[in-house]
Amino acid sequence: MTIIPPDPNLTALRVELARLRGQRGWTFDELAERSGLARRTLIDLEHGRTTGSITTWHALAHAFDVPIERFLTSLCEGHPAPGAPQP
């Protein structure tokens, strides 16, 4: 039996990035400086033109000083996370 996981919620992922950046009042330039990522990459992530790599999200987690799970759990928004109790 093949189990097909639900699609990741990429919209929630980019919204979480925008929310964190907005909470801190950082421009794309400031976040680029803090994360070591290119300004264009950050813009593309927030606008959904790219999803980035695990390395990208790792750098962002460090820049925002949050656990990487903060981003990764948003991928399951709208469906049960793996291992979560089923209703």
Automatic annotation (TrEMBL):
<protein>
    <submittedName>
        <fullName>Helix-turn-helix domain-containing protein</fullName>
    </submittedName>
</protein>
<dbReference type="InterPro" id="IPR001387">
    <property type="entry name" value="Cro/C1-type_HTH"/>
</dbReference>
<feature type="domain" description="HTH cro/C1-type">
    <location>
        <begin position="17"/>
        <end position="71"/>
    </location>
</feature>
<dbReference type="Pfam" id="PF13560">
    <property type="entry name" value="HTH_31"/>
</dbReference>
<dbReference type="InterPro" id="IPR010982">
    <property type="entry name" value="Lambda_DNA-bd_dom_sf"/>
</dbReference>
